[in-house]
Specification:
Elements: E1 6-8, E2 15-17, E3 21-23, H1 29-38, E4 47-49, H2 50-94, H3 102-114, H4 117-137, H5 149-232
Antiparallel strand pairs: 1-2, 3-4
Length: 233
């Protein structure tokens, strides 16, 4: 076979039959990029053999599959990290530090006791003992005879003191509810943003996969056409 029927590959310097000659401008851009990564001096007017071109086509397909597996793993890691951050935020809400002052703690204790059945029953028993001791034991001649002016004074003072203490506790509870509602809003907002972010990533990944799969199909069709041309020859 004469040298006229052969050509020299630009990337390997080896000689191949003229029928296997492929110019750079005939190669698909995605595959051409791989060739130029290994051989930056390769231009559109340079040529390689069909067998060398198939090697880079296979590299492109293999690289795509490896990239997709890596992207899926990275996405899973980001989702797990996002869920971990959300858990820490929730635990912060559930187990917030108790930074109440001594007066606020006393107000909460008084409010809790004043709104319980223990207080109601014990106070009712106290009133019965007070009235019974003055009417039946001391025959209405004791320290607080009927109409029990001292008892009324005690009840009035108790009500006057208990009301603002309960209001203090209610104000603290309202502040706590507002803070909890704010944190709940932050958690909901964070969850919504995470869902949107994951949705956008999935859309981008699906769109990217579709484009890459179309490109792979085109490369495979070119390889099949080359095989068919060899069979015909």
């Amino acid at each position: 076979m004469s040298s006229k029927t052969k050509f020299k590959s630009t990337i390997s310097g080896l000689e191949f039959p003229e029928k296997e000659k492929v110019y750079g401008h005939q190669i698909r851009q995605t595959v051409l990029n791989l060739i130029q990564n290994d051989y930056p001096e390769f231009k559109d007017n340079d040529c390689i053999s069909n067998s060398e071109l198939n090697i880079y086509r296979e590299k492109y397909i293999s690289k795509y599959l490896q990239t997709e597996v890596g992207e899926l793993s990275e996405l899973q890691q980001k989702v797990l990290k996002s869920l971990s951050n959300g858990k820490s935020l929730v635990s912060k809400v559930e187990y917030e530090k108790d930074n109440r002052t001594f007066g606020q703690k006393v107000a909460d204790k008084v409010a809790d006791f004043g709104g319980s059945w223990t207080f109601i029953i014990s106070f009712f028993v106290f009133i019965l003992i007070w009235i019974g001791s003055n009417v039946y034991i001391l025959l209405n001649k004791g320290f607080d005879p009927y109409p029990f002016i001292l008892l009324n004074l005690i009840l009035s003072c108790l009500a006057a003191l208990q009301a603002p203490i309960i209001m203090m506790s209610q104000n603290r509870q309202e502040e706590k509810d507002r803070a909890r509602a704010k944190k709940d809003y932050m958690i909901n907002l964070k969850s919504e943003l995470e869902i949107r972010l994951i949705d956008d990533k999935l859309d981008h990944l699906i769109q990217h996969q579709q484009q890459e799969l179309i490109e792979i199909q085109k490369v495979q069709i070119e390889m099949m056409n080359d095989i068919l041309e060899r069979i015909k020859k």
